[in-house]
Design a protein that fits this description.
mainly alpha; Multidrug-efflux Transporter Regulator, Chain: A, Domain 2; binds zinc ion; 2 strands; 2 domains
Length: 177
């Protein structure tokens, strides 16, 4: 099948498929004489695997590692377990970050009790003060290595957008090897 058909069957956009190809997650497709890429059932299955992992908020690097294990079935799966443990810790970190975010937002919300003149709104002035502090500090807001768990706000990033799966989400963090 051609890429359009694969996209339809796997419910994945063609740019996403090309992106996964470039990233080496999908094996090179054979070419027809007219130089069309030609895909088969193995690509459909691999795409389904990748998409499922994406729905579990795994990074491309994590998925690549899993696919490597899948491609070498003789190896031990102890490392798969370790990868999962690590990813679970990413999720736990992100939950803590989101809880802290919720707390911050609730504190901010308490700055304004009732509707009044926007001039007097504690929320607006609180946001302004915080923005000023941040621009003075000039310290980049680092949300930790697990920022790829985009539970609350999808990461902004390049090509494949669907399901929040973007290359930004695949960037390995500082402390991850
Ligand atoms: Zn992870």
């Amino acid at each position: 099948m051609k890429i359009g058909e694969l996209a339809k069957t796997a419910q994945t956009q063609t740019e996403t498929i090309r992106y996964y190809e470039r990233e080496g997650l999908l094996p090179e497709a054979a070419r027809t004489e007219a130089n069309y890429r030609i895909y088969d059932e193995s690509h459909v299955q691999r795409l389904a695997f990748i998409r499922h992992c994406r729905s579990l908020d795994m990074t491309l690097a994590e998925i690549r590692t899993l696919l490597n294990f899948k491609d070498t079935p003789a190896g031990s799966c102890a490392d798969v377990n370790a990868l999962l443990d690590e990813h679970i810790s990413h999720v736990a970190t992100r939950i803590r970050e989101l809880k802290a975010l919720e707390k911050d937002l609730k504190l901010l919300r308490e700055q304004c009790a009732s509707g009044q003149g926007a001039d007097d709104c504690g929320i607006l002035s609180g946001l302004e003060k915080a923005a000023l502090r941040q621009s003075q500090n000039r310290t980049p807001v680092e949300r930790g290595h697990a920022a790829h768990i985009h539970g609350a706000h999808p990461q902004v990033g390049g090509p494949p957008k669907e399901g929040g799966a973007g290359p930004a989400a695949g960037k390995p963090g500082r402390s991850r090897t």
